[in-house]
C-alpha cells in the first residue's frame, strides 16, 4: 500500500507542534538551524519548501525521526543524536552516568569475547 506524501503545510504544522512540545521558540530553532526566525515561520506555515537535509537537521534538533516529522512513523521514535542535542545543561550528570554505564557494558562484552576466544581458540 502506497503512503500519501505529506504536504509542506502538514510537515510545517508537525514541526511547529513538536517544537512547542519541546518548549522551544522559533528563535531558538532558527539559531540551531542557522536560519532567521522568519524563515522558520515560513517553514512551519508551509510557505517554504524544505529538502531532506533540512528535514534531517530539524528532526535531530527536535530529537525525533524524519518519519515522525512526516507523520508516517511511531510517535515515540527518537534519534540518539536528537536526544543528545535536545538535552538540558542539568542533564550533564545523567549523560556522564549513562556514558559510564555504556563503557562498563562495553568492557563486559569485550571480556566475554576474550574468554570465548580463549576457550575456542
Automatic annotation (TrEMBL):
Any single Gene Ontology cellular-component annotation: cytosol
GO molecular function: DNA binding; DNA-binding transcription factor activity
PROSITE patterns: HTH_CROC1
Keyword set includes Lipid metabolism: no
UniProt keyword list: DNA-binding
Keyword RNA-binding on entry: no
Positions of the HTH cro/C1-type domain: 15-69
Protein name: Helix-turn-helix domain-containing protein
Amino acid at each position: 500500500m502506497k503512503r500519501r506524501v505529506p504536504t509542506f503545510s502538514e510537515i510545517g504544522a508537525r514541526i511547529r507542534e513538536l517544537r512547542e512540545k519541546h518548549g522551544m521558540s522559533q528563535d531558538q530553532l532558527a539559531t540551531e538551524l542557522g536560519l532567521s526566525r522568519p524563515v522558520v515561520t515560513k517553514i512551519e506555515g508551509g510557505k517554504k519548501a524544505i529538502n531532506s537535509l533540512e528535514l534531517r537537521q530539524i528532526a535531530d534538533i527536535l530529537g525525533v525521526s524524519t518519519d515522525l516529522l512526516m507523520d508516517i512513523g511511531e510517535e515515540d521514535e527518537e534519534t540518539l543524536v536528537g536526544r543528545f542535542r535536545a538535552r538540558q545543561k542539568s542533564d550533564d550528570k545523567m549523560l556522564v552516568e549513562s556514558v559510564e554505564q555504556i563503557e562498563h557494558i562495553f568492557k563486559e562484552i569485550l571480556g566475554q569475547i576474550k574468554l570465548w576466544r580463549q576457550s575456542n581458540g
